[in-house]
Amino acid sequence: MDLLQPLFKNWALVTAAILVISIPISGFLLKIKKTEHALKAYQFFIIIAALVLLIVQIAYPQRPEFRTMVDALGMTYARENPYLKDKINADISRIMDTLDEGHFTTPGSGITREELLRAMQMTKKGDTVWAIDYGIPWRDDFELYHLENVAAAKRGVDITRIFIISENLEQSAKNVLHDVMKEQKEKNIRVKVAKKERVSKICGYPESPEGMVLFQYGNYRSILMKEVSPFSSKGKDNAPGFYKLEVHWSDRMVSKHHEFFHCLLQQPEFVQDFNPSHRL
Question: By the 8 A CB rule, do 177 and 138 touch?
């Protein structure tokens, strides 16, 4: 494939060249009295070759040329220092690999909060956010995220959040969640509630439940953030807990979770509007 890179990068010129060259060749074939059928076959081949080249270019888009930018960064910031030049090259290559793969995983709770905040802050009036929540600490680690949700709803972002509550959740935690849900509902966030033990029997519910947030930025590509593992304030040996998210933007992953979310919304027997007068 590497040998074909120049063709892919300049597919428009190559296609035009093929078509232009075909004209004199067609005339030559007529002069040597090739049959009309042979000429038509040749012209058909040229058209097919041009279409194949175009399809391959669309199916396998090539990376933009970053070498010039890397060299410029090396000159400006590294000043030919070999370590810094290698660092710049490695970081840019890692970013490009991530974009090619269509997803990345946050390394820990701090970065997870940053990405959730960034995604919510980027929303504007008319955008849509769908979320499934299993009880992250809204009043502690995710207080700023809660405030960003409220701010987004105020500027016209359409937010729907389904809180899925386990019967095993401690009552004190349920009370905190109830207050959060009440406030979000009052701030024009559409709040739904479901019991985990009941909802797990519908809509192809996953064996390992995962919270998720799906951000739809107008007509642009959506961003899906889904839990790798449930939130834990403390890890092994009382070390700080890790809350990781997978961040996806591939159409397949986004569509799959979008369908699951809307399937839940279509089950009013299991997923109901939150009523603040009913304690969890």
Answer: yes
